[in-house]
């Protein structure tokens, strides 16, 4: 329990520290102004520097994806839209732009329809960002334990009952929020994706340049990374097709 609470505090603290960085805020503002003026290459350079410096932000990833899209670089746009999606999976603008950018790719890979319970569960755990879930969890746990303090020290029977049962409910909701955050993290850990960047890639039956060609995929296609082996990557498409590609042909999300 203590480890999970510390982990949630770290998730909350990192965006707050970044928000307080005046230099970072100035860079983001500069990139936004360049984008608004239609200076997309300059905006890419500005946003990319923020990312290369190690700052992770759904907003910066999203803006960088938009700049790449405006610069007609669909694979790079999709890469950063997907990075933004991992940090803020419930954001409607991000999800819309992913769908819109995918319409510009060559390969139209149809994923099988999920069982309705699975679809509902994924929709539930991805509704809020991990940061939001962390904030909710921490606030609920603090409130719940504060009510237990009230229960411990009050002399009123009515207040004791109300504070005790309210504390149990709120702590239970806090634990539920922590569980949801954990499920979301495990979901993304189990869906390790990549975007194809080469114009066309022959997917092979084995991690060998002489192996049999199974099928062809093109730039912008999203694949799930199943394994890595000496510069080769075993990938799986949304329709279930699998094979090996050279790792240099894709960038991992």
Report the mean per-residue pLDDT as an integer: 90
| Uncertain spans | none
* Biggest beta sheet summary: 5 strands, antiparallel
Number of strands: 7
> Which secondary-structure class do the elements indicate?
alpha+beta
What is the overall number of helices?
A: 9
Percent helix among the residues?
Answer: 55-70%
Estimate the strand proportion. 5-15%
Strand order of the largest sheet: 6-5-4-1-7
Give Rg in angstroms.
22 Å
Shape: globular
SSE ordering? HHHHHHHHHEEEEEEE
How far the N terminus sits from the C terminus, by CA atoms, comes to 30 Å
Task: Output the keywords.
single chain, five-stranded antiparallel β-sheet, 9 helices, 7 strands, globular
Could you characterize the architecture of this molecule?
The chain has helices spanning 2-19, 22-36, 40-52, 58-70, 74-87, 92-102, 116-125, 130-153, 157-190, and strands at residues 193-196, 200-204, 213-218, 222-229, 232-236, 242-246, 250-252. 60% of the residues lie in helices and 14% in strands. It has a five-stranded antiparallel β-sheet. The protein is α+β, with helices and mostly antiparallel strands. Helix 5 packs antiparallel against helix 6 (92-102) and helix 8 (130-153) packs antiparallel against helix 9.
